[in-house]
């Protein structure tokens, strides 16, 4: 009897526990999923500005401004030449770190430089000849019948050297080298200005007999104020030191065709008209 009562009591406790668990499960809210912290997903804060991070640039600017006046002027002129634009003093400072306003020596040298044009506010590059394209370049060269040095035209505008070659190929100009300076000279080749040479001058030119020895030719050139391109005396002296003979090689005697010569082209009789 006591055992049965104990079993009934145990069953009631089990039912109560089951009811309680069901009630808790029905009323409970889902536990939110906790995502582990990941620094990469967090919003990155703005990095703190460190003055040391700009040290290299500031040192570079300081070195430029402490450089000699000539070095700073060259830096500005290179800027004006490459860009072909007009810059104020403030724009020059921003572009190449040369503080024109803070350095009176730099400002005065830049303003009075032959390669710089200053309009009172802006600085720009100034070439020797103010030409902008190929047609203007050709007009300029035609004004110099005695020739114009190419070195004076190189900085006129960026593509001037290409235009010079194009004019040469088109036969509009001549590009010849100066023997003394080894520099190219541009000469006009204008077909509207034909050059006539008198027959007497042609005969005089053709009648001049040149010396047979190259040393004599070089001496005559020097007498007339010209520099020979060769130095035969020096070349011969060096040849003697090294045991090289200066005597011209004797030409081999040309064998003439005779009756004894074996003829292989007998089908071409015109070749043997002068057979001795």
TrEMBL record:
Q: Where is the TFIIE beta domain?
A: 57-132
Which terms under GO biological process does the entry name? transcription initiation at RNA polymerase II promoter
Show the GO cellular component annotation of the record: transcription factor TFIIE complex
Q: Where is this region: Disordered?
A: 230-263
Top-level lineage group:
Eukaryota
Its keywords, alphabetically, are:
DNA-binding, Nucleus, Transcription, Transcription regulation
* Compositionally biased spans, kind Basic residues: 248-262
Give the range the annotation lists for the signal sequence: none
Task: From the Swiss-Prot or TrEMBL record, state where the protein is found.
Answer: Nucleus
Function statement? Recruits TFIIH to the initiation complex and stimulates the RNA polymerase II C-terminal domain kinase and DNA-dependent ATPase activities of TFIIH. Both TFIIH and TFIIE are required for promoter clearance by RNA polymerase.
Q: Note the subunit structure.
A: Tetramer of two alpha and two beta chains.
PANTHER family, A to Z: TRANSCRIPTION INITIATION FACTOR IIE SUBUNIT BETA, TRANSCRIPTION INITIATION FACTOR IIE, BETA SUBUNIT
> Which named protein is this?
Transcription initiation factor IIE subunit beta
The protein's organism comes out as Heracleum sosnowskyi
